[in-house]
Amino acid sequence: MTIQTQETERRRRHATARRGRHRGTAASTPEVFSRGFEALGRLAVQGVQVSARATDLSTGEVLFSVDDHVVMPTASIGKVLLLVEVAARLQSRQLSPLAQLDRSPQDIAGESGIWQHLQVPALPVADLAALVGATSDNLATNVLLRRVGLEAVSARTESLGLTRTALLDLVRDHRGPDDAPQLSVGSANELTWLFSALARGEVVDAATSRQVISWLSLNSDFSLVSSAFGLDPHSHRHPEHGILLVNKTGTDAGVRSEVGVLRGPRAGVTYAVSTYFDDTALPARLAVIDGMRTVGLDLLEYVF
User: Fold this and answer.
1) pLDDT (tens digit, 9 = 90+) per residue, 215-227?
2) pLDDT at 111
3) Is 63 exposed, middle or buried (0-12, 13-18, 19+ CB in 10 A)?
4) Which one of 36, 156, 249, 296 is most buried, by most CB atoms within 10 A?
5) The CATH number of the domain where 204 resides is what?
6) Looking at the predicted structure, is the pLDDT value of residue 156 above 50?
7) What is the pTM of this model?
8) CB within 8 A of 161, min separation 6: which ones?
């Protein structure tokens, strides 16, 4: 059962907002996103499951959507929900940013992240959250999850009114029949709401939202939609050519997903693009990445 809160009501109003007009005259016509629509359409014809949505950050106008209600595997994007819970506990002083958390053998997970390559056996909570934001660090994710608990993250997610988006499990190198089939799932509709609400300071409270945004602004993965924006993945916390981005990506076998807030000289936009595909051949993967980059080109044109 979804807990009805002020956040739930804000999300409902956002989802049903009337279409507005972009302040840059005709930039909000469908032609602006024609390349992205065509690219995603080609992927769908090739058997790729696609879900996408983009909304104007100021007006809430839906700029384009493709099956945005569908629940999709989103890999590491669900880690944002963990960061929300950690940030909320820091603000309420239930957790100290300097509390040292040790890593243990059961926390070990390969792939993304840098802590697994470092010698230090323990790090403070705030540093672990920064590693999750910057490199989607799997080991840091599991250590933080062990501290706050997956049930607490799920309860926080529900309290925000999210019913199609969830962090389902800790990070595992191998998923057995008794494990959740995916690390996380989400709908493009809810993910764009979540990032819009974070940008407006409306997730839990303004301080919590700012903290989550600060961690996510460290993200160094610009390999998908955001590859079109021309930003330095290792140094982009201040506007470059009037462009500012906060994003989170999710990558797994057959999964490529990205959600973010892109601000430019003319407008701001919140976007989410998720794909699920047969990842048995490199050309299929490259086609998905190219299609997501094409959506990014349309988003850049809208804000710039």
Assistant:
1) 999 999 999 999 9
2) 85
3) buried
4) 36
5) 3.40.710.10
6) yes
7) 0.89
8) 2, 3, 4, 5, 7, 8, 9, 11, 12
Q: Extract the tokens encoding 262.
A: 């892109």
Tell me the mean pLDDT in the region 158-168. 97
The mean pLDDT of the chain is: 90
Q: Let me know how long the chain is.
A: 304
**Could you list the residue range(s) of the whole structural domain that residue 250 is in?**
27-303
Q: Does residue 110 lie within any of the structural domains?
A: yes
Q: Report how many domains make up the chain.
A: 1
Amino acid at 246: V
For residue 79, give every residue at least 6 positions away whose Cβ sits within 8 Å of its Cβ, in sequence order, or none: 132, 136, 141, 167, 184, 248
Tens of pLDDT, residues 37-72: 999 999 999 999 999 999 999 999 999 999 999 999
